[in-house]
Each structure stands twice: as C-alpha cells, then as structure tokens.
Write the structure tokens for this entry.
Amino acid sequence: MSENEDRFEQYLRSFAGPKLPGNLLDRSAAKARAAHRLKRVVAGVLAAAAALLIAFTLWSRGEPPQGSGSPTPVAKTLPGSDADLTEYASLQRAFRDGGISRLESQLDRTALAMKAGGGLGAQPLNMNSIYGGKLPFETE
Amino acid sequence: MGEQEAFENSGPFDGKTLEGQVERYGREMMLYALTLTRHREDAEDVLQEALARIFAKQPSGILNWKAYLFRAVRNAALNGIRRRGRAARREAGAVCGFFIEPASRQEELEALNGALAGLADEQREVVVMKVWGGLTFDQIAQTVGIPRDTAASRYRYAMEALKEKMRGFFNE
C-alpha cells in the first residue's frame, strides 16, 4: 500500500459510526435463553406426542380385528396335511381289521371329532345317504 | 494468515470474553451491520441475533474474535434479509447515515455517508471490513466467501471511488 493510500485510510478511520446500544448484550443473552427454553419445551411436547403415538399403536394392535370377526374354519385339517393322512390311515386300518362295520364306526368317530372341532363334520357322515346304502367297493 | 486460521478455535467459551470482545469491536460490528442493512433498527436486530446465536452456540474458543464476530454479523444479516425481506424496506428509502462522528465535521460526514452509500454493495462491504474493521484480505475473503484477489480488487475500486468523492476534504 502506498503512503498516500495509507494516509487516506487513516483519514477515513477518523470517522466513526454509532455505538452499540448499551443493553444489546443482555438482550442477546436473554434471547438465547428464551430460545433454549422454547427448544426444550418443543422437544418435550414432541417426545410426549411420540410416546402417545407408540402407546396407541401398541394398544390398537392388542384389539380384535374390527368388522365380521375372524373367519370360521371350514375344515379341521387341510387335505394332504399330516392330520389328514393320519385319519386316512386309521380308516384303512379299521376297514382292514374289522370290515365295513368297523369302518363305519371309525367314520362316525371321525365325524364326531370334526363336529367337536367346528369343521366340516357338523353332521355325522351318513354313508347310506351318500351312496344309496351301498359303498362303492361293496359287492352286490 | 491462512484461510483455516481465521476462525480457528483455541479455547473454551467464556461469556466474559465475549462481553469484552463486543465492547472492543462493538462499533465496528455496528458499522458493518449498518453497511449490510442500511437501516439502524435492522442493524441492531442483526447484532442482537448474531450475539444470541453465539450465546446459544457457545463456541469452544476463538482465535480471532474480530473476524468471528464479523462473520456472525454477516450470517445474521443474510438470514434476516431472507426472512423478513429487509431489502424491500431498504428500497423504500429508510436509509441511515453510516457515520455520526466527529459531529464537528458535519459536511465531511455527509459527503462520506453519501460516498459510501454510492458504492456497490459488495465494494462497500469490503472497504468497511478493511478500513474500519481492520480485517486482512484473507479474513475478508473467508467471511464473504470470495477469492482473496477479488476482495483486494473490490477494495481498490472502492477506495478510488471514495477518494474521488472526498477530494475536496482530503488533501493527497
């Protein structure tokens, strides 16, 4: 910087702007404290709202589904399931061991068990009504 | 001074230290806020906002308080302008004088206020930071976010314009 520029800078520095307001620092500190308090209050409200939301979500999950209720099971066991295969094996064994009478009584027991379980066997199976009094494998 | 050194922290925050620095550089901060807002009340709002942020942030320590305070004032001023549309009020003509002392040189004061107001905003900002703020070009460049050479050229143009306007008062 040349000497002339330096002198001009010195000249400019002889002018001064307004002073700071006397209580500006105190007002700034008070403003910072107020902002801090507000932040804490907002954080508290948000935390409470989040807790309420979580509590409501958990509570609503514990309620039974609204509307027509849970669907009634249409069968105690699904075809091909382990239980179904067990029943089929027991019927085969009953026919092999005791003939048609044993099979009929086994079928009745199975129907009663299904009825008790609320499945398809609401009524005991009546072989006569199904096959006109004769089983398909029964000879004339 | 390197760019990273201008605002580097070096010690814990101390409210008493801030108070002392504000007492020391308060007038420069006020002039800089006036330069950015061109309105007395807005300038005070900006300073209050800047200091409140420093109180809230409690920076762990400042190597160069003057540069740090100038940057805080600038950030607060820019935020205020964005938020409240201070530029609109400035356009409405609510412009104050930058300098009020020495009152005995009223004619020079008016000439200097007029000369400073006539500068482009970016030139006025740099010249106030350099002449009355006492910041280096590195600190100005970092505060404003411009290259050092740009800060230096803005300063030169501003000084030439001011010298021209103040020719009747300043004898070369």
User: Anything to note?
Assistant: Residues 119-123 of chain A have pLDDT under 50 and may be disordered.
